[in-house]
Specification:
It is a single chain. The chain is of the alpha+beta class and about 200 residues long. It is about 35% helix and about 30% strand. Strand 4, helix 5 and strand 5 form a beta-alpha-beta unit. The N and C termini lie far apart (about 35 Å).
């Protein structure tokens, strides 16, 4: 990795800024003292079947024949929000949408979705067409959350609606773990749901 300074001390950056920066994820994370590890994450999973997801899966399969997912709003309203609302009802957890977080001039902005359950947090970043840069933004959001929350483990997901990728922040190692597994919706909806519930209820 090249040793170069990316962020400027006198500049202000929102979470969206990191999506727009034309640098590699590991280079941006290094600015915050974090490293990036791409690996196969062992994610918590609910061991019960989430029956509510079966009719949703069928509904999404039908909708995808009629809805044009050409922009972020369409993806969020058609695929992301319906899934999260089912998870919220199942877990009886709190959902914050466009949640404002302001840590400092380099760590501020809105989180697309923040799910809260007891001491567990799950941040979800929805993007239209760039999962890689979306992951960079998600990683920075996790770093921001780590500075205001005491939870030893923080999880996040970046999604384009039909594709979901998980991340985990390791506070002790100062590392962002990027799951190499991609989950496809609607086919992987059951396993995705079990993981979301597992993170929130573990």
């Amino acid at each position: 990795m090249l040793n170069r300074k990316i962020l400027q001390e006198d500049r202000s950056y929102t979470f969206r800024s990191y999506f727009e920066l034309a640098y590699e994820t590991d280079e941006i994370l290094a600015e915050f003292g974090y490293s990036l590890l791409k690996t196969e994450l062992t994610l918590p999973q609910c061991d019960r079947e989430i029956v509510q997801l079966q009719p949703l899966k069928q509904k999404l399969k039908t909708l995808l024949s009629f809805v044009n997912l050409s922009n972020e709003t369409a993806r969020r309203e058609t695929l992301v929000s319906p899934i999260l609302l089912e998870i919220v009802c199942y877990c009886s957890c709190q959902l914050r949408i466009e949640y404002t977080l302001n840590v400092n001039n380099w760590l501020k902005g809105n989180l697309d979705y923040l799910l809260l359950s007891k001491n567990k947090l799950l941040v979800i970043e929805a993007k239209n067409d760039d999962l890689t840069r979306g992951f960079t933004q998600l990683a920075v959001e996790l770093i921001a959350l780590s500075q205001v929350e005491e939870s030893p483990e923080l999880y996040g997901v970046v999604t384009m609606g039909d594709i979901w990728r998980f991340a985990k922040l390791d506070r002790q190692q100062k590392q962002i773990l990027q799951d190499i597994t991609l989950f496809n919706i609607p086919n992987d909806l059951e396993i995705l749901g079990k993981i979301l519930v597992g993170i929130l209820q573990t």
